[in-house]
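ingest -> fold -> write
write: protein_1
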Amino acid sequence: MELFDRFDPGLYELSVDFRRQLKARSMEFDLPIQLLRESTLRIGPTTRFGERTLTPLTDRAWNLGVAIYYKSGGKPWRLTTAREGVCYIGIAYRKHDVADPRSACCAAQMFLDTGDGIVFMGEFGPWYSPERKQFHLERHSATRLLKGVLDTYRQLEGKPLKEIFLHCRSGISADEFAGFEAACPSGVSLVGVRVRVERRGLRLFREGQWPVLRGSMARVGDRAAFLWGSGFKPLLGTYDGWEVPLPLRIDVQHGKADVNQICGDILGLTKLNYNACRLGESEPVTVGFSDAVGEILVSNPKVARRLPQFKYYI
């Protein structure tokens, strides 16, 4: 005997997060939306007993104004260091099936020299390894993923590319990179870079009361470096963190590129968060938004029309 008169098992495939569901479903109607709680509009103390802590009112006004401007079609800013014909693609993953620990969805986030972004959803498959705690695609799936991203880019932008940098937290295997190379246009340089927070390794300390400067870099040979996306910011005269800053470990795993240039590009990509009033994030947007994008993409498998513009996902 069933406990309920009617039972729809498909409901358990949907995310219980209201924000993810609303953003995923609104795409079908070409509606980028900005959600905010009523308390966000509060004018007064930023801290009240029993309520969440708010950022200063000026920060909230900036966040809301910039986000709405971007989602309305504007470009809040672009990097002066951006190089024409260069794009950065973050490979994102999201676990999908609780019953199958290997099941995951892959996606790609492409960021251009204009500062805009493109999101492309890849395939579901056994991409996660519980033993190694890493995600990896099969060669043909990697080819289809990059080909889909570049086809979408040509439809929206159409400008020729010179260099493509792939960023991934899990790293990129030789088989994966061969798949990506198969989709790469002739004459375009392809470079695979692992970008991950170094949580248990190198730390830097300096004399005085402030931590290491944001933007500091320590090279480890010709193809690896540590980069501090967080740290003391001289322009603000402060450090807005709580702990010793964690560096990013940068590893050029495939292709040929100058690690100094790569670190400079990654530091620039920490400034492309149009959804926060900060001088820079601790991670570049290529990997920093991977969790948020993945959550919205897999929040509702019944949503058939997923739009590629990044403004629908933040």
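write: protein_2
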Amino acid sequence: MTPLINKAAEIAKEMKMLYQAIIIVGGNHVTSMPGETMKEFPIFDIGIVGEGEETLREICDGVSLQDVLGIVYREKDKVIVNQRRPPICSLDDLPFPARDLIDMKKYRGASSPGLSREFLTITEIYVNRGCNWGLCTFCASMKTHQKFRMRSIDNVIAEMKECIEKYKINHFTIDDDTFTTDKKRVMEFCEKVKPLNIKWDADTRVNNVDREMLQAMKNAGCKKLSFGVESGSQRILQLIKKGITIKQIKDAFNMCHEIGIETAAY
């Protein structure tokens, strides 16, 4: 992301010096400004614009860079921006993350404020990708993901079961931009995750919850919800096109507290 792009360039410089590695950068910053990023940071060899799964696989398979959709790269002194890759249609077709390739014990920080890996065995997981609102002026989600898509609940539960059995995970942080986009899906998720007997938290909007949904989430192991509040000023909320009101913020937090779900505001 933009606040970390300079730090990423510093790390890339060290990697290039130590390993003579090809440096590939991805994320919201290069997606938003592909040409500018490559010109400002010559240490980056290739930039991935948008979603990276299929793009990175093609690069690793040795496909000629001129034929790889969704990248920006350097050809001598010229920066080439290829055509954008269409978003992945079926998220269920993607393999589960290869968590076995990292030492998860090294990840000691909180996955979300108040949830420490000192006491919990946590991993992150996605149920949906992108945002179906696309209104907020400050957000890069639609720029990166282009459109909102959903995994099947059964596919999500299968990944959770693998994490529990293989890695002894006992808490999941659902990193969707808006987990509660579709109430019917949330209720299905709660029904199917409850037998796993684990705890979880998620991010959402204050105008995308109701008491029935929150109670089902609590019963299914939801420990905490983080809401995109952004501001306590109605004027600012309108300026950034957040699409929520101060009353909706208060109502959502009050419902969570009454039901027994911890909260955080972003």
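write: annotation protein_2
Residues 31 and 49 are 4 Å apart (CA to CA).
Residues 2-81 form one domain.
pipeline exit 0
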